[in-house]
């Protein structure tokens, strides 16, 4: 794969500009191994990857829960056609939406299903939304050199122009991962507590497919 863009030759530069700029290009052969991730330990990058992967798992779980809540809701005869027409686009959004929108869609699907037995769905949704703050920094931040304690502040500015300022180390990442796993488990519980088997799982409960 071509990844180098050839600059103008000195003769071409002289033809296009008459200044005396001290021109330079990066010597890629002299970059440190694993640049630009060379300043952090392999353990840090492993934990960061596991934490980000846990967020991906949470998004998958939310999409499946949306399917479960919308697919098991009882509709009156005059609602069935309209509900069916809107179901496929809703499931498509569950596949393509990111975490914040998935949390909102999950909350609505759970509240709209009269059989929901989880009483604090709104609190769970808000917890998931709050988790997006650090998720965006972890996924999109540019990691600065770690301090003496091994903590690093990712360079990340959100759409409100707020700067992320928290130093992150391995232990912090482990705590975030554990919290995200807990959120995913709570989402799954909200389905299985109604007596349904969570989609894609093999646990107890009535399977959603072929349940009617």
Q: What does this entry look like structurally?
A:
This protein starts with 9 loop residues before the first helix and ends in a 20-residue tail after the last helix. The chain has a two-stranded antiparallel ribbon. Helices cover 52% and strands 2% of the residues. Helix 2 (42-71) packs antiparallel against helix 3, helix 2 (42-71) packs parallel to helix 4 (99-112) and helix 5 (121-140) packs antiparallel against helix 6 (170-192). It is mostly helical and 212 residues long. The protein has helices at residues 10-16, 42-71, 80-96, 99-112, 121-140, 170-192; strands at 142-143, 154-155.
Annotation keywords:
single chain, 2 strands, 2% strand, mainly alpha, two-stranded antiparallel sheet, elongated
| Total separate domains | 1
Please, what is the average pLDDT? 85
**Global shape:** elongated
Oligomer: single chain
Total of DSSP H or I helical runs spanning 4+ residues: 6
User: Spans with pLDDT under 50 lasting ≥5 residues?
Assistant: none
Give the percentage of residues in beta strands: under 5%
Summarize the structure.
This protein is an all-alpha fold and 212 residues long.
List the helices and strands and how they pair.
Layout: H1 10-16, H2 42-71, H3 80-96, H4 99-112, H5 121-140, E1 142-143, E2 154-155, H6 170-192
Antiparallel strand pairs: 1-2
